Amino acid sequence: MVNRDRVEGHKKLYRDYFATPCVYESFFRRRFRMSRPLFLRIVNEVEQYDSYFIQRTYAIGVLGLSSLQKITVAYRIIAYGIPADSVDEYIRIGESTAIESLRRFVKAAIAMFGDHYLRSLNNIDIARLLQTEEQRGFPGMFRSIDCMHWKWKNCPTAWQDLWI
Questions:
Q1: According to DSSP H, which parts of 3-66 are helical?
Q2: Which pTM was predicted?
Q3: How far is residue 124's CA from residue 60's CA, in Å, rounded to a whole number?
């Protein structure tokens, strides 16, 4: 077993993004792609749904991974498409635990938020999205993140020619 110093991993993550004040206050939205209150709401809901995410003390008296560590890992794998073993150095979590956290997080997210957020769009949603895109200067654009239709210096090349 590798000694990953999980407690230090939690402290660093908490200090960097969740303490008041935190080290990377202005970077939270960019790095997590959502506001901190929304992320913490998701953490709370997921903890209530699945006790796997609640930090435990092992029989030998050692603290396990925190919910922030497990959910941050799952979220980064989903949001950035990174391999499960690439988060070990910062979050201090092994590959198999990262994969298990991802699996359980997805299951919890679907159960907790699926009916509202993962449903098919209705006509009201479509009209709202079309209006929003028109206000942004993209009239008639709907469900396309293909960056070839306009000049955009920050277009992620991985998204080029991708239609969803």
A1: 6-17, 28-32, 36-49
A2: 0.72
A3: 55
Tokens 């008041």 sit at which residue? 20
Q: What pLDDT tens digit does each residue of the chain (164 aa) get?
A: 667 788 888 999 999 999 989 898 888 888 888 899 999 999 999 999 999 999 988 878 888 899 999 999 999 999 888 899 888 888 889 899 999 999 999 999 999 988 888 888 889 988 988 898 888 887 777 665 554 455 555 655 665 555 54
Q: By C-alpha distance, which of 71, 33, 75 is closest to 50?
A: 71
CB atoms within 10 A of CB 133: 16
68: left (phi over 0), alpha (psi -120 to 50) or beta: alpha
C-alpha pair distances (Å), 139 with each of 7, 136, 144, 161: 50, 8, 12, 19
Which residue matches tokens 């989903």?
78
Tell me the C-alpha distance between 49 and 156, whole Å: 34
Residue 93: burial class (beta carbons within 10 Å; 0-12, 13-18, 19+):
buried
